[in-house]
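Summary for the steering committee. The consortium agreed at its last meeting that each partner would contribute one worked example illustrating the joint modelling workflow. Our contribution is presented below. We chose a case with several input lines so that the handling of multiple components could be demonstrated. No manual editing was applied between input and output; the record is shown as generated.
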Amino acid sequence: MKRKVLCALLAATMAVSCLAACGDKSSDSKSSKDTLVYAQGADPRGLDPQIVDDGESAKVTNQIYEGLLTYAEDSTEVLPCLAESWDISPDGLEYTFKLREGVKFHDGTDFNAEAVKFNVERNTINKTEDMTYADFVWGYVDKSEVVDDYTIKITLKQPSTPFLANLAMVFGAPMVSPTAAQSGDLMNKPVGTGPYKFVKWNKDEDVQLVANEDYWDKDNMAKTKNVVIRTIKDASTKIVELQSGNVDIIDGIDTTQMENLKKDSNITVSQTPGMNVNYMAYNIERLDKETRVAISQAINVDEMVETLYNGYAEKATTVLPSFVPGYSADVKQIAYDKDAAKATLEKKGIKSVHMITYTNPRPYNTATGQTLAEAIQGYLAEVGVECTIDSYDWTTYKDRTIAGDYDICFYGWSGDNGDPDNFMNLMSDTNAGMNVARYNLAKNKEDKADYKEYAQMISDAAKEPAGDSRNAMYAEMEQYVADRAIWLPISHQQDLTACKSNVKNFIYHCTATVKLYNVTKD
Amino acid sequence: MIKYIIKRLLMLIPVLIGVSIIVFFLLRVCAPDPAPVVLGQHATEQSMQEWRDANGLNDNIIIQYWNFIKGAVTGDFGESYYTNNSVLNEIGSRFPATIEIAIFAIIVATVFGILIGVVAAVKKNSIIDNASMVLSLVGVSIPIFWLGILFIILFVKILGWLPASGRIDAMLRPEGGTGFYLIDTLVQGDFEAFKNALWHLILPGVTLALYTLAIISRMTRSSMLDALNQDYIRTARSKGISEGKVVIKHGLRNALMPIVTVIGLQFGALLGGAVLTETVFAWPGIGSYTVECITKSDFPVIQAVVLIIATIFVLMNLIVDIIYAFLDPRIKYGKKES
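What follows is the complete predicted structure of the assembly.
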């Protein structure tokens, strides 16, 4: 009996192993025409857009949910979505939205003014401490009132021009079904109004979506019936799966793999300008303006960006990416001048600086903070300044920046809403975790006065209605912080994606999200 | 025997208390603060403070430990900080994948490991022996992620025989069931899905098996060599018993004890998750998930996983000890020596 069992076991194992050898090249694992397979590098955190804050979740929720407003396909221009139109009162405090009629959530709940009020209140008076974007999107809201079934009035505590841009965001702003939010589990079973409906989420495997046949926008119905958003953590595996046809689109590609992919005639690669900035921040508490300017002069940013990012990041000429309103090509950063830097630093007796940095790649700096710090260490050595670098994993690093024990630190920012305030106010913020230059804690008289002036400029611009006048205010601020060397802007990282050449209409948005309703496969 | 098993199971309690104390306090002392990770780039001092309050992280550490233990004994390990889901659900949704691949790997490793080890011992110092031992040395030494990538390049990219990642094509996934796709697809009679799941299992399963296979084959060889030199083997041969029967019935059976120990411990390790294999092959198991939770300081998940793995190891040791008694009738647990 025992021998029989052993023989059976042996035979079964042999058979399984042999299957590998005689496997056919069948296309059973290749995705079919009515199924679009998108692979990303991590599993979504959850599927409630009012709680999560990660790009992986957003790739899924952006297919299921919609907000009152949305971004244009290839820019951060704000367009109507669930709100057809809106009026802003002259004092900039009251926003009246006319809502689209005949829209239903996937669970059959009507989308109307009551639903919007529920969503606003979920993010304000009823918000929980884990709703990461509630304050950012809705923080200025004082109250919301239902005017009629399809009109809602939202009153702000103070004028805030970025409010409209916030309403198009993928986090905090999308409208969730009040019924599902009250009785269900939105983190696992999302219910929105979007072109795709949720089917199933297999943790660390994939999320399955199906086209919403009752979608309100008949001109923009989902073109591909099924969407599968897979989790493939290993970058090389993701690429092999694309090349072997098991997935259709991948994102988060390592720059070292791009040349290889470009050579593949079956693959189309794309480099999208990223809405981010990678920068070095001076600790204003410790370094005066003259020292900061001299250190900036010592660093050849052009050369460094070209060397570290292999052409997959653009040199930052200012804090703002070029497509964000308020960006000015006329802003002049401190020019590379090694001799002037050396003379100033010698005169001031600066022989060493203490840097802190992060060890892992970040969305705005794929080369890692460590590599960047070491490159700058090299430049500073040339002008006689020795750098001590303390490196930490990202979580610990965030604690270290709040503690403030450094002369220079490395950081970055991924834009949220496409509004210039979202970038420029980082230097006026009073929260040490955001304002890593610690500008608000400036000790010397000159920096202190400058900070006060800058904070006022930020506050004024946030209230100014969108348009040329507001854009000019931000251009002025960009030059203001460049002259005072608060940061050394380094680069804007591009988002790298690739898809099979039979995939059409795939656009990776500059907010690092995607909308797949229009994507088809030949 | 039953008395012995109960005694061993009771010994689990102090082991688990010890493990829970170590993991709980190590996390609180060494791991970074989870608040900035959970709240993301808009975290402020105030929002982090509120979040810590809501999650009990500002309580006295002894009270925190007491609350954890109180929950754990009732099977409530709390919620993941990061996903807000019950920890048991998070682990439960990934555990079938880990068990499935572990069983596949241990079967491949055991069958081939013992086969290679026995042949190597019987043909001692022959080319087969030397070749198999060099191969097993390579199997032990080779980095698993590198081997995985090589397999992917060969079997997926060049030959196109197998898929590189995942457990099954999303559109073929069985509805409901046990979470073990091979079983579920068979029970539902969906042979296309069964074949698809098996195809997906082969590369990660074989990659994971190779290290264990190498250890088992080396252990089998040395243990067999020892057994084959015993007097009872000579006696068996002198009685005219066929060589095959001598090797299997008299040699292998007596050599099995250390092999079973190794298999038991390796199986325990496989059930604890295989981080690298899971990452390379996008296998949705418990290993890479736990590492991710460690990087995010998701304390409730890490605590639960460590306790579960400790329990698995203790139980595997117990099972190995019980198997000893079946393999060697001289071993009698729970009885005083006469």
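Chain B has a mean pLDDT of 87. Chain B is about 75% helix and 0% strand.
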